[in-house]
Amino acid sequence: MPRITGFDIPDEKKIAFSLRYIYGVGPKVSIDILANAKVDPEKRAKDLTADEINRIAKQLERHTVAGQLRRVVRDNIERLKRVGSYRGLRHRQGLPVRGQRTRSNARTGRGKRKTVGALSKEVAAKLEE
User: CA-to-CA distance for 69 and 82, rounded, in angstroms?
Assistant: First the structure.
């Protein structure tokens, strides 16, 4: 399993797809990195030479990926919370942030369903006693 800048990437897949296993590297960034490093995107990760791995690692350093990217995202969310913006309040409450409806969906954000409804006459009479 080749190791690029501290990340193990799958060796049986083509390198263009293997790079996507790194957080922050998508299809476009993967293709750009390989083009700048002059590595064939059709090549399998296990077939890479040490020189090609070094060139890819050097190109990856130009991009914000993995731990650094997670830190940037976390800092942005913390800033929204601190400023007290609407998005920050939604993050703080654990509700959808981007305008999705919450009346019928958003179960993961709102938690398990709690049934609220009218009581039958027998149950209401027992509660009054």
Answer: 20
- DSSP, collapsed to helix, strand or coil, labels residue 4 as strand
Comparing 51 with 103, the larger pLDDT belongs to 51
Query: Is the model's pTM score more than 0.85?
Result: no
How far is the C-alpha of 22 from the C-alpha of 24, rounded, in Å?
6
| Residue 29, number of CB atoms within 10 A of its CB | 18
Q: If you search the block for the tokens 């390198």, which residue do you land on?
A: 15
Q: Identify the CATH class of 3-63.
A: mainly alpha
Beta-bridge partners for 8: 3
Domain boundaries, the chain: 3-63, 66-97
Residue 9 has pLDDT above 90, yes or no: no
One DSSP character per residue, 81-129 reads: HHHT-HHHHHHHHT--SSS---SS--HHHH-S-----PPPHHHHHHHH-
Given a cut of 90, is residue 78 above it in pLDDT? yes
Distances, alpha carbon 115 to alpha carbons 44, 112, 119, in Å: 53, 10, 11
C-alpha distances (whole Å) from 60 to each of 17, 31, 111 are: 15, 12, 39
The residue with tokens 């390989």 is 34
